[in-house]
Design goal:
Elements: E1 5-6, E2 12-15, E3 24-31, E4 36-43, E5 46-47, E6 51-52, E7 57-62, E8 69-77, E9 79-87, E10 92-96, E11 101-105, E12 113-121, E13 126-134, H1 149-153
Antiparallel strand pairs: 1-13, 2-12, 3-4, 3-7, 4-5, 4-6, 8-9, 8-11, 9-10, 12-13
Length: 158
């Protein structure tokens, strides 16, 4: 995580595992009294380490195959208070409350999607958060490549 961070900052650093073989397929966000406590991403079939403070009630969301997070709203008031995550399939997931200073986070390049989350946390909750964006993994193709040259070279007028 080297990009922009949202929130006042301070505390211990956290980051999701850099896993270039697996996409984010799910999310768990734990919300305590007025604060987002922790976040956890599912990479492929397995849950990554839980990031942030202890406690809270956990909401779990599952992304559909080929669905990605493309934009995030975060709200801070000393700590992370809420998040809304928008997906490529026009769905959104709402965690906590959008209270305080609201910022939107999205990739700088068209077509990029959320691949990682990083930030800082203290005992009570998350003090800053940042988002890693990149292009989705290429699906391994089973089709042979289409050869486009034969039609262009075919004699005309026969």
């Amino acid at each position: 995580g080297s990009g922009k961070m949202y929130g006042p900052g301070g505390g211990k650093y956290f980051s999701t595992t850099e896993d270039y073989d697996h996409e984010i397929t799910g999310l768990r966000v734990s919300v305590g009294l007025l604060l987002v406590k922790s976040v956890q991403v599912k990479l492929g079939d397995s849950w990554d380490v839980k990031l942030g403070a202890l406690g809270g009630n956990t909401q779990e969301v599952t992304l559909q195959p080929g669905e990605y997070i493309t934009k995030v709203f975060v709200a801070f008031q000393a700590f992370l208070r809420g998040m809304v995550m928008y997906t490529s399939k026009d769905r959104y997931f709402y965690f906590g409350k959008l209270d305080g200073q609201i910022s939107s986070a999205y990739p700088s390049q068209e077509g990029q999607v959320l691949v990682g989350i990083y930030g800082q946390y203290q005992l009570l909750g998350i003090k800053s958060i940042g988002f890693e964006w990149n292009y989705p993994l290429e699906e391994p193709t089973t089709e042979p490549p289409v050869n486009l040259t034969y039609s262009a070279n075919s004699p005309v007028g026969r």
